[in-house]
Request: fold
Amino acid sequence: MNRAHLARLLEHDSEAYTACRRAVLDGATIWISETGQPASTFARIYARRQRTTRQSGIPTLGFPAAVQELHDRREQLVKLAAVDVEDPPYHFQLFLNDDVSAVLACIGVDGRTGYRVRPGDRVLLECQIISWESNDFPGWIRASITDAAGHTWSLVEKAPVLGIDLQLHAPLPTTVGIRSTVVRELPEDDFGTPATLIVSTAVDGISAEDGTNQFVVTRESIRRLPA
Reply:
Protein backbone atom coordinates (compact mmCIF):
# COMPACT_ATOMS: atom_id res chain seq x y z
CA MET A 1 0.00 0.00 0.00
CA ASN A 2 1.37 3.40 -0.88
CA ARG A 3 1.55 6.27 1.59
CA ALA A 4 -1.02 8.47 -0.15
CA HIS A 5 -3.63 5.68 -0.20
CA LEU A 6 -3.21 4.96 3.51
CA ALA A 7 -3.50 8.67 4.28
CA ARG A 8 -6.83 8.75 2.42
CA LEU A 9 -8.09 5.76 4.41
CA LEU A 10 -7.24 7.63 7.62
CA GLU A 11 -9.45 10.63 6.80
CA HIS A 12 -11.58 10.44 9.92
CA ASP A 13 -12.46 12.94 12.65
CA SER A 14 -11.17 10.88 15.59
CA GLU A 15 -7.99 12.02 17.35
CA ALA A 16 -6.20 8.70 16.79
CA TYR A 17 -6.91 8.64 13.04
CA THR A 18 -5.94 12.30 12.63
CA ALA A 19 -2.64 11.87 14.47
CA CYS A 20 -1.83 8.69 12.54
CA ARG A 21 -2.63 10.34 9.20
CA ARG A 22 -0.31 13.22 10.06
CA ALA A 23 2.46 10.73 10.92
CA VAL A 24 1.96 8.90 7.60
CA LEU A 25 2.19 12.14 5.62
CA ASP A 26 5.28 13.16 7.61
CA GLY A 27 7.14 10.02 6.54
CA ALA A 28 6.62 7.58 9.44
CA THR A 29 7.52 3.91 8.90
CA ILE A 30 4.60 1.78 7.65
CA TRP A 31 4.12 -1.98 7.91
CA ILE A 32 1.11 -4.12 6.81
CA SER A 33 0.58 -7.85 7.42
CA GLU A 34 0.03 -10.20 4.49
CA THR A 35 -2.60 -12.39 6.16
CA GLY A 36 -5.71 -11.66 8.20
CA GLN A 37 -7.17 -13.07 11.40
CA PRO A 38 -10.71 -12.92 12.86
CA ALA A 39 -11.50 -9.60 14.50
CA SER A 40 -12.58 -11.46 17.65
CA THR A 41 -9.02 -12.71 18.11
CA PHE A 42 -7.64 -9.19 18.07
CA ALA A 43 -10.49 -7.99 20.32
CA ARG A 44 -9.37 -10.38 23.08
CA ILE A 45 -5.68 -9.53 22.68
CA TYR A 46 -6.14 -5.78 22.64
CA ALA A 47 -8.65 -5.75 25.50
CA ARG A 48 -5.84 -7.18 27.64
CA ARG A 49 -3.33 -4.70 26.25
CA GLN A 50 -5.72 -1.86 26.97
CA ARG A 51 -5.85 -2.85 30.65
CA THR A 52 -2.06 -3.15 30.77
CA THR A 53 -1.36 0.25 29.25
CA ARG A 54 -3.97 1.87 31.52
CA GLN A 55 -2.52 0.29 34.65
CA SER A 56 1.00 1.31 33.57
CA GLY A 57 -0.05 4.89 32.96
CA ILE A 58 0.92 4.78 29.27
CA PRO A 59 -0.95 7.43 27.24
CA THR A 60 -3.00 6.05 24.34
CA LEU A 61 -5.44 7.23 21.71
CA GLY A 62 -8.55 5.42 20.52
CA PHE A 63 -8.10 2.21 22.54
CA PRO A 64 -11.70 1.73 23.84
CA ALA A 65 -13.29 2.51 20.47
CA ALA A 66 -10.91 0.15 18.65
CA VAL A 67 -11.53 -2.76 21.01
CA GLN A 68 -15.29 -2.28 20.71
CA GLU A 69 -15.07 -2.12 16.91
CA LEU A 70 -13.07 -5.35 16.80
CA HIS A 71 -15.55 -7.02 19.15
CA ASP A 72 -18.46 -5.96 16.92
CA ARG A 73 -16.74 -7.28 13.77
CA ARG A 74 -16.69 -10.79 15.27
CA GLU A 75 -15.25 -13.24 12.71
CA GLN A 76 -14.54 -10.75 9.93
CA LEU A 77 -10.97 -11.12 8.71
CA VAL A 78 -8.76 -8.24 9.75
CA LYS A 79 -5.19 -7.37 8.78
CA LEU A 80 -2.78 -5.63 11.10
CA ALA A 81 -0.78 -2.59 10.10
CA ALA A 82 1.58 -0.33 12.00
CA VAL A 83 2.79 3.23 11.68
CA ASP A 84 5.84 4.11 13.76
CA VAL A 85 7.27 7.51 14.58
CA GLU A 86 10.88 7.67 15.79
CA ASP A 87 11.13 11.02 17.58
CA PRO A 88 9.39 11.18 19.92
CA PRO A 89 8.68 7.43 19.73
CA TYR A 90 5.02 6.75 19.02
CA HIS A 91 3.28 3.63 17.71
CA PHE A 92 -0.02 3.46 15.82
CA GLN A 93 -1.71 0.06 15.49
CA LEU A 94 -4.13 -0.14 12.57
CA PHE A 95 -6.74 -2.78 11.80
CA LEU A 96 -7.73 -3.02 8.13
CA ASN A 97 -10.34 -5.09 6.32
CA ASP A 98 -9.07 -8.09 4.38
CA ASP A 99 -8.81 -6.34 1.00
CA VAL A 100 -7.08 -3.34 2.62
CA SER A 101 -9.71 -0.91 1.38
CA ALA A 102 -10.65 0.51 4.78
CA VAL A 103 -9.17 1.18 8.21
CA LEU A 104 -11.56 -0.36 10.75
CA ALA A 105 -9.83 0.85 13.91
CA CYS A 106 -6.78 2.82 15.00
CA ILE A 107 -4.88 2.86 18.30
CA GLY A 108 -2.07 5.22 19.25
CA VAL A 109 0.43 4.35 22.00
CA ASP A 110 3.10 6.63 23.43
CA GLY A 111 6.41 4.83 23.07
CA ARG A 112 8.35 6.78 25.66
CA THR A 113 9.49 4.77 28.69
CA GLY A 114 9.02 5.81 32.27
CA TYR A 115 5.73 7.56 31.59
CA ARG A 116 3.85 6.30 34.62
CA VAL A 117 2.21 9.27 36.29
CA ARG A 118 3.11 9.77 39.93
CA PRO A 119 1.99 12.23 42.63
CA GLY A 120 3.68 15.56 42.09
CA ASP A 121 4.08 15.12 38.32
CA ARG A 122 3.16 18.13 36.21
CA VAL A 123 0.66 17.44 33.42
CA LEU A 124 -1.66 19.29 31.06
CA LEU A 125 -5.37 18.86 31.83
CA GLU A 126 -7.74 19.09 28.88
CA CYS A 127 -9.93 22.20 29.06
CA GLN A 128 -12.58 23.37 26.61
CA ILE A 129 -12.59 27.10 25.78
CA ILE A 130 -16.25 27.98 25.27
CA SER A 131 -16.56 31.72 24.76
CA TRP A 132 -15.11 35.17 25.34
CA GLU A 133 -16.43 36.45 28.65
CA SER A 134 -15.06 40.00 28.47
CA ASN A 135 -12.69 42.08 26.34
CA ASP A 136 -11.52 43.98 29.41
CA PHE A 137 -7.73 43.76 29.70
CA PRO A 138 -6.16 41.24 29.49
CA GLY A 139 -9.23 39.45 28.09
CA TRP A 140 -11.38 36.96 29.99
CA ILE A 141 -12.43 33.50 28.79
CA ARG A 142 -15.18 31.14 29.87
CA ALA A 143 -14.05 27.52 29.85
CA SER A 144 -14.98 24.11 31.21
CA ILE A 145 -13.35 20.95 32.57
CA THR A 146 -15.14 17.60 32.30
CA ASP A 147 -14.29 15.13 35.06
CA ALA A 148 -14.26 11.32 35.01
CA ALA A 149 -17.94 11.17 36.01
CA GLY A 150 -18.94 13.41 33.12
CA HIS A 151 -19.62 16.43 35.33
CA THR A 152 -18.70 19.77 33.73
CA TRP A 153 -16.98 22.40 35.85
CA SER A 154 -17.27 25.98 34.61
CA LEU A 155 -14.56 28.58 35.09
CA VAL A 156 -13.72 32.12 34.00
CA GLU A 157 -10.04 32.96 33.61
CA LYS A 158 -7.68 35.45 32.03
CA ALA A 159 -7.02 34.62 28.37
CA PRO A 160 -3.18 34.59 28.66
CA VAL A 161 -3.35 32.11 31.56
CA LEU A 162 -5.23 29.69 29.28
CA GLY A 163 -2.86 30.32 26.38
CA ILE A 164 -5.33 32.32 24.28
CA ASP A 165 -4.21 35.47 22.46
CA LEU A 166 -6.94 38.10 22.68
CA GLN A 167 -5.76 39.70 19.46
CA LEU A 168 -6.13 36.48 17.47
CA HIS A 169 -9.74 35.85 18.45
CA ALA A 170 -9.28 32.14 17.83
CA PRO A 171 -12.42 30.31 16.66
CA LEU A 172 -14.29 28.74 19.56
CA PRO A 173 -14.86 26.27 21.04
CA THR A 174 -11.32 24.97 21.15
CA THR A 175 -9.31 22.74 23.49
CA VAL A 176 -6.25 23.78 25.48
CA GLY A 177 -4.19 22.25 28.28
CA ILE A 178 -4.18 23.66 31.82
CA ARG A 179 -0.96 23.16 33.77
CA SER A 180 -1.83 20.85 36.66
CA THR A 181 -0.22 18.67 39.30
CA VAL A 182 -1.04 15.00 39.93
CA VAL A 183 -2.28 14.59 43.52
CA ARG A 184 -2.85 10.84 43.53
CA GLU A 185 -4.17 7.89 41.56
CA LEU A 186 -7.50 6.18 42.28
CA PRO A 187 -7.29 2.47 41.33
CA GLU A 188 -9.66 0.49 39.14
CA ASP A 189 -12.56 -0.79 41.23
CA ASP A 190 -14.15 -4.26 41.42
CA PHE A 191 -16.76 -3.26 38.83
CA GLY A 192 -14.15 -2.52 36.18
CA THR A 193 -14.30 1.26 36.45
CA PRO A 194 -10.96 2.46 34.98
CA ALA A 195 -8.29 3.96 37.20
CA THR A 196 -8.58 7.73 37.51
CA LEU A 197 -6.41 10.56 38.79
CA ILE A 198 -6.92 13.48 41.12
CA VAL A 199 -5.22 16.54 39.65
CA SER A 200 -4.87 20.07 40.99
CA THR A 201 -5.03 23.19 38.83
CA ALA A 202 -3.71 25.38 41.67
CA VAL A 203 -0.27 25.63 40.02
CA ASP A 204 -1.48 28.69 38.05
CA GLY A 205 -4.20 29.67 40.50
CA ILE A 206 -6.98 28.30 38.27
CA SER A 207 -10.21 27.05 39.84
CA ALA A 208 -13.84 26.45 38.93
CA GLU A 209 -16.37 29.16 39.70
CA ASP A 210 -17.22 27.46 43.01
CA GLY A 211 -13.55 27.46 44.03
CA THR A 212 -12.83 23.79 43.23
CA ASN A 213 -9.26 23.25 42.03
CA GLN A 214 -8.95 19.46 42.37
CA PHE A 215 -10.65 17.20 39.86
CA VAL A 216 -11.01 13.44 39.39
CA VAL A 217 -10.19 12.83 35.73
CA THR A 218 -9.41 10.01 33.31
CA ARG A 219 -5.92 9.43 31.98
CA GLU A 220 -7.19 10.27 28.49
CA SER A 221 -7.83 13.86 29.61
CA ILE A 222 -4.22 14.58 30.60
CA ARG A 223 -0.94 14.91 28.70
CA ARG A 224 2.64 15.27 29.80
CA LEU A 225 4.06 18.78 29.78
CA PRO A 226 6.24 19.22 26.68
CA ALA A 227 9.92 18.66 27.41
